[in-house]
Amino acid sequence: MRVDGTRIIVEGRGIGTMIGGKPAVQVAIRDISEQKRAQEALEEKERQLSSFFSNTPERLFYLSIEKGNRFRFLAVNQAFLDALHMSPDQVIGKYVHEVIQEPLFFTSRLKYIQAIAEKKTVQMGRSYGIPRLEKRYGDCNITAVFDENGQTHEYNRQHSRQHGLQAY
Fold first, then answer.
1. Is-contact 168 104, C-beta < 8 A?
2. Is the predicted pLDDT of residue 62 greater than 90, yes or no?
3. Are 25 and 79 within one domain?
4. Which three-class secondary structure state does DSSP give residue 11?
């Protein structure tokens, strides 16, 4: 507690020492109240975003962009898993080509590369030519995420339109 009565959160460290031939402890204390509040606010924001991601009816997923324009699933929401009739362990950490079969994989990979190159959202429509794929995957928008320097961010974000699904 500060002299003015304000409660604070502190972090302390102590070290044993000798003072005048007698054992003593030297302690350093610092106020971490603001750091603690910032950490709690960040954790709350993460909980909110996680809740949104997990509970939205849109099919969402994040992909890492790896060497050779390879894409790996880092996160998917429940709507995505439900649409593919898969569990998280069948998707998370897997390369897209391990989850999505040809010919859809080829088309989706080209759209990912286009979204990155053009730095804009690109649409992928229901032109797969295979009725079972069109029903299952539908239309989607593909958006690459970039950092403040214009470099490709670690993740890609995609979301479906209307009743469409994305699964790449």
1. yes
2. no
3. no
4. strand
Domains of the chain: total: 2
Average pLDDT over residues 10-31: 94
The model's pTM: 0.62
pLDDT at 93 over 80: yes
CATH code of 73's domain: 3.30.450.20
Ordered alpha helix ranges (H), 56-87: 78-84
Distance CA 166, CA 157 (A): 10
pLDDT at 13 (0 to 100):
95
Q: Which domain holds residue 88?
A: 57-160
Residue (of 117, 63, 120) closest to 95 by Cα position: 63
Structure tokens at 17: 């020492």
C-beta separation of 109 from 89 below 8 A: no
DSSP state string for 105-147: HHHHHHHHHHHHHHTS-EEE-S--S-HHHHHHH--EEEEEEE-
Same domain flag for 72 and 134: yes
- Pick from 38, 37, 29, 39: which is nearest to 2 by CA? 29
Inform me whether the pLDDT recorded for 118 exceeds 80. Answer: yes
